[in-house]
Model the fold of this input.
Amino acid sequence: MIVKKTFKLFASVIILFSLVLSLFISPVAANNNNTIEPKAVERYTKTVNVACHDPSWGYVTVKVTISHNMTTGRFTVDSATGTGHFNAAWPGVKLKSVTTNPAVGSVINGSIIKVTVYYTNIFDLTSTTHHASDNIEL
Done:
């Protein structure tokens, strides 16, 4: 009888010791400073045609790629590219750049992205850079 009680006590101490030991040895995500990886990121493209200075000059098609991180709920501007569709009657009109507000790589606060295109007419004596803007709604 004493042997049974001693065995039960010894087995209980061993089990309790192993549980406590496993708690201190096992890695915990908070101790490793791990970040939460997004489980689902949705990417989609929005397109807008921005009319140039004088509509007879043409327009620029801007494609903005947006990502939506469903884990955090944040929208981000991934990229913005423009393709110029200029009138052949204005051979000097060239696309210089495309910008967005919020900028590429930034988190979108609100539901509107402002797209601005910069273009120039190389035959213009003043070398003026023109710009035109339009909005994209999420």
User: Anything to note?
Assistant: The chain has a mean pLDDT of 84. The chain has one helix and six strands. The helical segments are 2-25. The first helix runs from residue 2 to 25.
